[in-house]
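Repro case for the chain-ordering regression, as requested:
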Amino acid sequence: MLSFESDYTIGAHEKILSRMQEMNMVQQKGYGADEVCESAKEKIRKACACAEAQIHFLVGGTQANAVVTASMLKRYEGVVAARTGHVSVHEAGAIEYTGHKVLEIPGHDGKIDAGELSGYFKTFWEDGNHEHMVFPGLVYISHPTEYGTLYSLKELKAIAEVCRAYGIPLYLDGARLGYGLMSKEADIMLQDIARYCDVFYIGGTKVGALFGEAVVFTKKNMPEHFLTMVKQQGGLLAKGWLLGLQFDTLFTDGLYEKISKNAIDTAELLKEGFRKKGYEFFIASPTNQQFIIMDNETRERLQGKVAYSFWEKYDEKRTVVRFATSWATRKEDVEELCGLI
Amino acid sequence: MLSFESDYTIGAHEKILSRMQEMNMVQQKGYGADEVCESAKEKIRKACACAEAQIHFLVGGTQANAVVTASMLKRYEGVVAARTGHVSVHEAGAIEYTGHKVLEIPGHDGKIDAGELSGYFKTFWEDGNHEHMVFPGLVYISHPTEYGTLYSLKELKAIAEVCRAYGIPLYLDGARLGYGLMSKEADIMLQDIARYCDVFYIGGTKVGALFGEAVVFTKKNMPEHFLTMVKQQGGLLAKGWLLGLQFDTLFTDGLYEKISKNAIDTAELLKEGFRKKGYEFFIASPTNQQFIIMDNETRERLQGKVAYSFWEKYDEKRTVVRFATSWATRKEDVEELCGLI
Amino acid sequence: MLSFESDYTIGAHEKILSRMQEMNMVQQKGYGADEVCESAKEKIRKACACAEAQIHFLVGGTQANAVVTASMLKRYEGVVAARTGHVSVHEAGAIEYTGHKVLEIPGHDGKIDAGELSGYFKTFWEDGNHEHMVFPGLVYISHPTEYGTLYSLKELKAIAEVCRAYGIPLYLDGARLGYGLMSKEADIMLQDIARYCDVFYIGGTKVGALFGEAVVFTKKNMPEHFLTMVKQQGGLLAKGWLLGLQFDTLFTDGLYEKISKNAIDTAELLKEGFRKKGYEFFIASPTNQQFIIMDNETRERLQGKVAYSFWEKYDEKRTVVRFATSWATRKEDVEELCGLI
Amino acid sequence: MLSFESDYTIGAHEKILSRMQEMNMVQQKGYGADEVCESAKEKIRKACACAEAQIHFLVGGTQANAVVTASMLKRYEGVVAARTGHVSVHEAGAIEYTGHKVLEIPGHDGKIDAGELSGYFKTFWEDGNHEHMVFPGLVYISHPTEYGTLYSLKELKAIAEVCRAYGIPLYLDGARLGYGLMSKEADIMLQDIARYCDVFYIGGTKVGALFGEAVVFTKKNMPEHFLTMVKQQGGLLAKGWLLGLQFDTLFTDGLYEKISKNAIDTAELLKEGFRKKGYEFFIASPTNQQFIIMDNETRERLQGKVAYSFWEKYDEKRTVVRFATSWATRKEDVEELCGLI
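-- result from build under test --
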């Protein structure tokens, strides 16, 4: 069966596995205090053009979001996010479990709008009394978003400026960052993210690693005793060097970006295929996730032949479905898919 | 200065104070295990026509909401509420502080819609996989709402039916319940609330008491070890009989409803006054909170003469303001106000 | 039946009630922003000889402990307390509910020892790595303790010095503070407490008020947005002036200390009575709580005649019981008790 | 430098790595719904002789403890553990972070005593009122303990009987379970653990895996919606098959026990070496962790040559240190160590 269900259904880039084999019996310090982690951090700092970046590797995305949010917020603060944000809807309440509210504002194809954010802050801080409300303490954006869309540099800059004007840090969830960076419409580079965001994470799980996300604090703003808080949230990996190893490999010779490009190339091929067959797109996505409006008959016809994700009901006869490519998607599989649809 | 700022700016009905005087030096059991509490509970059971009601008295409204929600929800559940619900916006994140998400759905003049609620449940349970989402575990409504509006019996029944169809308990926040019951448009009686809701609270703080809210579980569904959870949330009053005494007084000879009527009568007078002077109402409220669109010049003119609440900016020149009457508002004061505006 | 069960079984000093009567219909600002609270705070500042004290009134003791602890601690910190401390054992896990550990150290008749505290800090900070442990962030003591015992000035000073050496704030739970101040063995005055502690609370519930505890931050160290955090924990009283009124009354003309003395005088009488009859004391308490070892036959004999508290089993034949006097205990009742035992 | 610092300083058994290589590009369902996980679960069920065991794989030990505890406890309950238990002292308050108290009872060389546990329950449930206390809701033991000691079958049975008598589930932390099972003094087999415990975890991180712990619910008692709660705590691994693969390998042909034996053999060799040189043992450990009392001069002499862990100060001149062997420790390294000490 052809698999376009998600971008985390297979293992890691072969270089990661072979390096794991090499280092398997080498003694390492525990909890990320090893030299491989140090090397990976240094490479990421360079890739971000952010010499002072403080980096910590975590295992997964929800963990990264919960750890970053709960360690950066004060007790009376919440995190502002699009109503469709991953932290808002698809993390089983992991943020609230740490005691913090997700302050939902409108999402536009997954993105928040700088003007609306500014309006939200203005209303909160300037009109009347907010002592009985949750204070905004962090702004969450995802790039690419949960809908595969991208912020333009102008948009990111505008959001960052609003955040700075109100003294609120900006956090970017980069679970699929590689695919955002390599999109044909990419307007933002890694260095821009490091410049405009106060903290972000570079996704490994969905982009070439077995698992792992690199949390990057860009303004010497890693919370004090961050490691203890990671431990407190159950997120500290004993063999932290496994995370270092993967990011060190991905950030050697631009491997992260190179392999990300494959997801984009195959997604473009897939889009072309659907377009030719007259399918309607639910959203215009320039990255590896493609949202197609599919009638239920076609869905039946494809059953057992192609795996993809249910997204939401469109109407009685049609459904929004998601096809995801990845760093490992084979051109042949996309071509076979195009023949089937 | 005339005060229409809120319905909790003065003390309690005189009968409460005189009874407090009487019982002041009588030895009582601690933590609500006294006979006054028992008597008050029995009177409330009768007023609700719900012989099996389990009742616990708490000190304040946010406390009641946080205690009820956090004791009724399972860990992976959240409470569904209108986006404008008190638990959503004006309790400083008290629900999230207990680890639970407020699952916000649209509000219509403060009310939720049975059809939309049903759609929300249907999407959650019937379409796709929700294992990564917060499960709805309680539905929160307020009556009167934060905008002074009321549910009709038909609306309440429809919401209750949706809740039952999906096995989700329904919780009604009655911070201003008396004013809802005595409204000219009141379609719902206390017994209806006891029948259709699984839990609700009868507000004392805003309706004749010094403080206190009576939480009523109507279906033998008070969570096990509720008292211990109240203690854990810091809400257990040592001299619990003070709460019992107040509710026992309010539920003797229909005092609660009698005094509530005054708030409605004075609110009607106030509405009439504003209407005559050509003011526009932000919302049509049949209870004690009236939301007026006032131009900023008028606001300046009234400064120092009348106290009321800022609600929100309407446009550059006008502001939505709230005038609240209460069980203790004097007709003369409303008349004086009508002369001033 | 004679009642020595606890010090919170009756109402408030008559001056409080009559003042409540007077102010009942006076319009007040909500949430403690009123002038009565301001006046009470000023009087407490004077009584503490601490002009810069920041004061907030809360409703009950567990609430005060949970609010102070959770607002002062950083996320990775816990509160150090005696194993027998109220926060450790009798608050249903209210501290843990806020996400923080109670770091238990040995108690000696309810008190902690400066030397042991210092040893604990030394081990934590100086020996090995503590990144995987809960950091001490506050020290909790009670005065009088849960066993009625008192710290000497020397002991308090020593604890405060250890705290300062390690940069950890010291918090004193004064649920029964008046009885500690008026004990014949009292070595510590209110001003000493204000000088040596970073935060403490003056108990009202057990000492003349209907309810209420005055939390005093002595070093300009009230956490930012404290009121919002109180709201978040469900502890913000709408009619905050009720708390102000009570403390304003108690701190006018030394009423708090005057009425506290009665508890001590009657406790001394009671001790004398038990001593004369040959009873053994479980602990030597110089305050209003007396712990007596009573054989079970005597307990049976007293049943229905005297109310007191079960404390713990002593052995198969004997039980530790507690007799508590209060500001309102009548000499005649103690004399009657002495006749019965 | 010789490394005896801990049992998690190197990678995984070679069979795991080669299997990872094999399966790397095979499409797998996400979040543990794959067939490798299913196969691993079946093998563990057989090894435990517990056909109805429900199993979930987690990434690390603190995560396993926090997830199990917080999903099994009711809100008003805490987990009973030895004062020296890992959950009590070395997990940065991960249990308290979920809102639950660790109810500490005495530890004896890391173990709790059935009699003391029974006494604790008896006092809690039978003497007086416990409504203001944290209810015991789970009993935590570790095997081997943090001090390397083991429960005998008789001891485990006695603890289990006490737990059953009071209706409290028993949880065993098996971070180093393999080393306990293969100890020369092992009296307990995996089947015994499955029989007497309600839930336990089989440690992978320290016993042959890269990472991973297998949580086993033995009585059809996996909490409802466990997966959602794992997600909520940030512990759900996208590529869950990586966990399944490791446990499937470890539980094929008894690999888990076979490799565990090496840690025991090398530990025995190491003990013999220290004993011959006249070192004093801090504790008699029959497993892979050895606690030696070492004078500070020797420590200086070994610096740069051998890595081991600081445990605690013994006196001014001596220190307790820990030497850990593992499934991968080489006999030659132990011999070299014995020559150095």
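Ordering looks correct now. The mean pLDDT of chain A is 97.
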